[in-house]
Amino acid sequence: MTVITHNRRKSRLSRIIDEAGGVSVGTALTQARANLDALQPRSAAEIADRIAELASITAPEQPEDTMKVLGKAYRAANGVIDAGGPFGMEDLCAVSIGLCDLIDAATPDRPFDWRVLPVYARSLQLLLAMPEDAEGRRAVRESLDQMVSLKLTQPD
Predict the structure, then answer these.
(1) Looking at 9-18, 33-42, 55-64, which range is the least confident one?
(2) Which of 62, 69, 131, 140 is 20 to 30 A off residue 29, Cα-Cα?
(3) What DSSP string runs through 83-137?
(4) Could you give the angle at the alpha carbon of 119 between the alpha carbons of 118 and 121, nearest 5°?
(5) What are phi and psi of 17, to 5 degrees?
Protein backbone atom coordinates (compact mmCIF):
# COMPACT_ATOMS: atom_id res chain seq x y z
CA MET A 1 0.00 0.00 0.00
CA THR A 2 1.30 3.44 -0.92
CA VAL A 3 0.73 6.42 1.33
CA ILE A 4 0.72 9.83 -0.22
CA THR A 5 1.35 12.82 1.96
CA HIS A 6 0.79 16.41 1.00
CA ASN A 7 2.87 19.26 2.20
CA ARG A 8 0.19 21.66 3.40
CA ARG A 9 0.92 25.30 2.71
CA LYS A 10 -0.26 27.93 5.11
CA SER A 11 -2.05 30.88 3.54
CA ARG A 12 -0.38 34.26 3.62
CA LEU A 13 -3.26 35.79 5.58
CA SER A 14 -3.18 33.13 8.29
CA ARG A 15 0.61 33.50 8.53
CA ILE A 16 0.29 37.29 8.98
CA ILE A 17 -2.43 36.88 11.62
CA ASP A 18 -0.51 34.18 13.51
CA GLU A 19 2.84 36.00 13.58
CA ALA A 20 3.76 38.10 16.56
CA GLY A 21 3.15 41.70 15.64
CA GLY A 22 0.96 40.57 12.75
CA VAL A 23 -2.36 42.04 11.75
CA SER A 24 -5.39 41.37 13.91
CA VAL A 25 -8.62 40.29 12.27
CA GLY A 26 -10.28 43.56 13.30
CA THR A 27 -7.49 45.61 11.75
CA ALA A 28 -7.59 43.54 8.57
CA LEU A 29 -11.34 44.09 8.29
CA THR A 30 -10.96 47.83 8.89
CA GLN A 31 -8.30 48.03 6.18
CA ALA A 32 -10.48 46.04 3.79
CA ARG A 33 -13.44 48.34 4.48
CA ALA A 34 -11.26 51.40 3.82
CA ASN A 35 -10.04 49.87 0.55
CA LEU A 36 -13.63 49.16 -0.46
CA ASP A 37 -14.80 52.67 0.48
CA ALA A 38 -12.16 54.11 -1.83
CA LEU A 39 -13.75 52.20 -4.71
CA GLN A 40 -17.31 53.42 -4.07
CA PRO A 41 -17.18 56.52 -6.36
CA ARG A 42 -15.91 54.36 -9.22
CA SER A 43 -18.67 51.87 -8.51
CA ALA A 44 -21.33 54.60 -8.57
CA ALA A 45 -20.02 55.79 -11.95
CA GLU A 46 -20.09 52.22 -13.27
CA ILE A 47 -23.69 51.78 -12.11
CA ALA A 48 -24.72 55.03 -13.79
CA ASP A 49 -23.01 53.92 -17.01
CA ARG A 50 -24.74 50.52 -17.00
CA ILE A 51 -28.13 52.16 -16.34
CA ALA A 52 -27.51 54.59 -19.22
CA GLU A 53 -26.61 51.61 -21.40
CA LEU A 54 -29.88 49.91 -20.46
CA ALA A 55 -31.80 53.10 -21.24
CA SER A 56 -30.23 53.29 -24.70
CA ILE A 57 -31.20 49.76 -25.71
CA THR A 58 -34.18 49.47 -28.03
CA ALA A 59 -36.00 46.50 -29.49
CA PRO A 60 -34.12 45.01 -32.43
CA GLU A 61 -35.44 45.79 -35.88
CA GLN A 62 -34.54 42.35 -37.17
CA PRO A 63 -35.73 39.24 -35.30
CA GLU A 64 -32.36 37.56 -35.77
CA ASP A 65 -30.76 40.33 -33.65
CA THR A 66 -32.98 39.62 -30.64
CA MET A 67 -30.55 37.37 -28.76
CA LYS A 68 -27.67 39.79 -29.32
CA VAL A 69 -29.65 42.76 -27.97
CA LEU A 70 -31.02 40.71 -25.06
CA GLY A 71 -27.44 39.69 -24.24
CA LYS A 72 -26.41 43.34 -24.18
CA ALA A 73 -29.28 44.16 -21.79
CA TYR A 74 -28.43 41.17 -19.62
CA ARG A 75 -24.76 42.19 -19.39
CA ALA A 76 -25.73 45.77 -18.49
CA ALA A 77 -28.08 44.55 -15.72
CA ASN A 78 -25.35 42.20 -14.49
CA GLY A 79 -22.96 45.15 -14.44
CA VAL A 80 -25.29 46.94 -12.03
CA ILE A 81 -25.29 43.86 -9.78
CA ASP A 82 -21.51 43.51 -9.91
CA ALA A 83 -20.85 47.19 -9.15
CA GLY A 84 -23.56 47.61 -6.50
CA GLY A 85 -23.30 44.31 -4.63
CA PRO A 86 -20.15 45.04 -2.61
CA PHE A 87 -21.62 48.34 -1.40
CA GLY A 88 -24.93 47.09 -0.02
CA MET A 89 -27.12 48.40 -2.83
CA GLU A 90 -29.62 45.60 -2.40
CA ASP A 91 -32.51 47.42 -4.10
CA LEU A 92 -30.55 48.11 -7.26
CA CYS A 93 -29.29 44.54 -7.31
CA ALA A 94 -32.75 43.05 -6.72
CA VAL A 95 -34.28 45.13 -9.51
CA SER A 96 -31.47 44.14 -11.86
CA ILE A 97 -31.94 40.48 -10.94
CA GLY A 98 -35.64 40.83 -11.80
CA LEU A 99 -34.71 42.15 -15.24
CA CYS A 100 -32.26 39.30 -15.72
CA ASP A 101 -35.03 36.84 -14.77
CA LEU A 102 -37.31 38.32 -17.42
CA ILE A 103 -34.57 38.12 -20.04
CA ASP A 104 -33.80 34.52 -19.04
CA ALA A 105 -37.46 33.60 -19.43
CA ALA A 106 -37.59 34.80 -23.03
CA THR A 107 -38.00 32.03 -25.58
CA PRO A 108 -39.11 31.96 -29.22
CA ASP A 109 -42.57 30.90 -28.00
CA ARG A 110 -42.57 33.52 -25.25
CA PRO A 111 -40.75 36.58 -26.63
CA PHE A 112 -39.31 39.30 -24.44
CA ASP A 113 -41.63 42.27 -23.86
CA TRP A 114 -39.43 45.20 -24.86
CA ARG A 115 -41.73 47.67 -23.09
CA VAL A 116 -40.25 46.62 -19.74
CA LEU A 117 -36.69 47.63 -20.56
CA PRO A 118 -37.25 51.42 -20.36
CA VAL A 119 -39.35 50.87 -17.22
CA TYR A 120 -36.43 49.08 -15.59
CA ALA A 121 -33.91 51.69 -16.73
CA ARG A 122 -36.03 54.53 -15.32
CA SER A 123 -36.66 52.62 -12.11
CA LEU A 124 -32.94 52.03 -11.62
CA GLN A 125 -32.29 55.73 -12.24
CA LEU A 126 -34.94 56.58 -9.67
CA LEU A 127 -33.50 54.19 -7.08
CA LEU A 128 -30.05 55.65 -7.64
CA ALA A 129 -31.41 59.18 -7.18
CA MET A 130 -33.27 58.54 -3.91
CA PRO A 131 -30.85 56.73 -1.60
CA GLU A 132 -32.51 57.85 1.65
CA ASP A 133 -36.21 57.34 0.80
CA ALA A 134 -36.77 53.79 2.10
CA GLU A 135 -40.53 53.88 1.56
CA GLY A 136 -40.21 55.12 -2.01
CA ARG A 137 -37.55 52.52 -2.78
CA ARG A 138 -39.74 49.78 -1.36
CA ALA A 139 -42.70 50.91 -3.50
CA VAL A 140 -40.59 50.92 -6.69
CA ARG A 141 -39.20 47.49 -5.93
CA GLU A 142 -42.60 45.98 -5.07
CA SER A 143 -44.13 47.32 -8.29
CA LEU A 144 -41.36 45.80 -10.35
CA ASP A 145 -41.61 42.51 -8.42
CA GLN A 146 -45.32 42.38 -9.28
CA MET A 147 -44.54 42.95 -12.95
CA VAL A 148 -41.96 40.16 -12.93
CA SER A 149 -44.46 37.82 -11.28
CA LEU A 150 -47.13 38.65 -13.82
CA LYS A 151 -44.79 38.32 -16.79
CA LEU A 152 -43.36 35.01 -15.62
CA THR A 153 -46.72 33.44 -14.79
CA GLN A 154 -48.54 34.47 -17.97
CA PRO A 155 -49.48 31.47 -20.07
CA ASP A 156 -47.53 30.95 -23.28
Answers:
(1) 9-18
(2) 131
(3) HHGGGT-HHHHHHHHHHHHHHHH--SSS---TTHHHHHHHHHHHHHH-TT-HHHH
(4) 60
(5) -70, -40
